Amino acid sequence: MLVLASRGGDNGVVDVLLVEDDPAIASSLVDSLTSAGYRVTHVGTGADALDAAGPDVVLLDLGLPDMDGHDVCRQLRERSNVPILMLTARGDEVDRVLGLELGADDYIVKPFGFRELVARMRAVARRTSAGAAVDAGDGDTSGVVEVGPLRVDRRSHRVTLIVADETTDVALTPKEFELLSFLADDPGAVRTRTDIVEHVWDANWYGPTKTVDAHVAGIRRKLGDARWIEAVRGVGFRLEVPPVGE
Ligand code: CA
After folding, report:
1. pTM for the whole thing?
2. What contacts 24+ positions apart, CB below 8 Å, involve 83-86?
3. If you measure from the C-alpha of residue 178 to the centroid of ligand 1, how many angstroms do you get, rounded to a whole number?
4. Distance of CA 7 from the midpoint of ligand 1 (Å)
């Protein structure tokens, strides 16, 4: 692994892990990110990406020489909730949905502009724990919501299920957390897809609506009961406590 650029010493520097095997794209991204104040570690293989020490955000090319980027994403996600932005030349919806199901937080399709990349990185970084700590002072993002056995704590970005006095942590990605906590703000109320997209993603998100479904599927799986999130056909989704003993 090669640390190409460092602005160490100042607080709040964002460590970016760039996983990209194309030298031209990588060197241009490293230059731009470094100029913008990021500390960049660049690797060209999936194996090196998995060896890299805890970054604040991962930019992950899907087409790597040694591994499929989707496998890299899945393995990174198994060990941490670090925000992952996939860089992909494959713009079709199937790949996007697969990636999001594997735990990516967002996509950017090549070719993309640097300003768009930074905007996406900021959007996902805001949803990390560090971002939550910074945001906690503004009142409406703090607090704990309890819905039946489900407990959503915005301050620590922690989700737990308490069943028969046993507390289980539910490891959600930043986007999944935002979606669940948005639904939990008003249990039983239907949130429209548009509201969900605007709240959980940025208003300038132009991705496929299937993205919402992919995240809902992820949350349902992690909560261990699909009935937690009810789909209301043609409208959106709502949070419901599943009936016990069925
Ligand atoms: Ca590539």
Report:
1. 0.53
2. 83/56, 83/57, 83/58, 83/121, 83/124, 83/125, 83/127, 83/128, 83/174, 84/57, 84/58, 84/60, 85/57, 85/58, 85/59, 85/60, 85/117, 85/120, 85/121, 85/124, 86/60, 86/61, 86/62
3. 30
4. 27
* 36 and 112 assigned to the same domain: yes
Instruction: Tell me, in angstroms, the distance from the centre of ligand 1 to residue 32's CA.
Output: 18
Measure 121 CA to ligand 1 centroid, in angstroms. 19
- Same domain? For 69 and 172 the reply is no
Domain containing 221 equals 144-239
Examine the domain organization and report whether 63 and 100 are in the same domain.
Answer: yes
How does pLDDT run across 71-118, given as a tens digit for each residue? Answer: 999 898 888 888 888 888 766 655 666 666 677 777 788 777 888 888
What is the distance in A from the centroid of ligand 1 to the CA of 18? 12
Note the pLDDT tens digit of each residue in 215-239: 999 999 999 999 999 999 888 999 9
